[in-house]
Amino acid sequence: AVSISRMKSEILTLMRHEFRTPLSAIIGFSDLIEKQSLGPIGESGYVDHARFIRTAGEGLLGLFSDLMLYSALSSSERELREDEYAPDAIAGRVLADVEQKFGPMHAICDFEKTLRIVADRDLLERAIFHLLSNAAVHGGGLAALSVTTLADGSVAIDVRDRGPGLTDAQVAACVAPFHQQSAGLARRVGGLGLGLPLAKLVAELHGGSLTFEVGGEAGACVRISLPACRVVYRSAEVAA
């Protein structure tokens, strides 16, 4: 069992290098062509082709990164790299990434200004990215993102959309890895079906959970709950 685990780790390490390096080169050089950094191309159609190559490369790199991250988290190979963060700083960067991929989001954000979260920023951002991505795809780009403390001192990160909502059966399927809620939709937007399973792993790794509000007709609400030990308050002067 130990040798199999070591072999798996070595294969994943090799894949990270052999896939990520050429993909990064494809993305980087196509970006140079798209921006005509070395001089005008002459034929504008080539700029569009370069943009398509870059976008496709970024999409493939994102899928590969999710697959590697899911493997690392599910096998406990990735440890938390914790620090203290303001929710609006995390949300701002995530929203920018989601809008770059899916277009403008009509997102309403609500944060407690003095609240700070002790977490692994990269992992938490990835989890929120997937929740907002689901809202962009299934909720028509309409979403409300809020970060608040509850009565027991824990923190709730809620993403609510205006899509068709979820049933209990759909929730159970959504957190299963490699599941796509709609095969037709999956073909249009792509993905491996790892977004919500990744978010669930991230929440649990922080001692929290991923829960869903089901049965409503006004869209779906997905919540990442983090324990009270991950909540810090700063004075208004420090928070500003």
Topology readout:
Blueprint: H1 2-35, H2 44-74, E1 82-85, H3 87-102, E2 106-111, E3 115-120, H4 121-138, E4 142-149, E5 155-161, H5 168-174, H6 183-189, H7 195-205, E6 209-213, E7 221-226, E8 231-233, H8 236-239
Parallel strand pairs: 2-4
Antiparallel strand pairs: 1-3, 3-8, 4-5, 5-7, 6-7
Helix pairs in contact: 1-2, 2-7, 3-4, 4-7
Would you kindly provide a written description of the structure presented here, covering whatever features stand out?
The protein is an alpha+beta fold. It folds into 2 domains: 2-74; 82-239, Histidine kinase-like ATPase, C-terminal domain (Heat Shock Protein 90, 2-Layer Sandwich). The chain contains 8 helices and 8 strands. The strands form 2 sheets. It has a 5-stranded mixed β-sheet with strand order 2-4-5-7-6, covered by helices on one side. Strands 1-3-8 form a 3-stranded antiparallel β-sheet. A hairpin with a 5-residue loop joins strand 4 and strand 5 (155-161). Helix 1 runs antiparallel to helix 2 (44-74), helix 3 packs across helix 4 and helix 4 runs antiparallel to helix 7. The longest helix has 34 residues, at 2-35. The radius of gyration is 20 Å and the shape is globular. Residues 183-188 have low confidence and may be disordered.
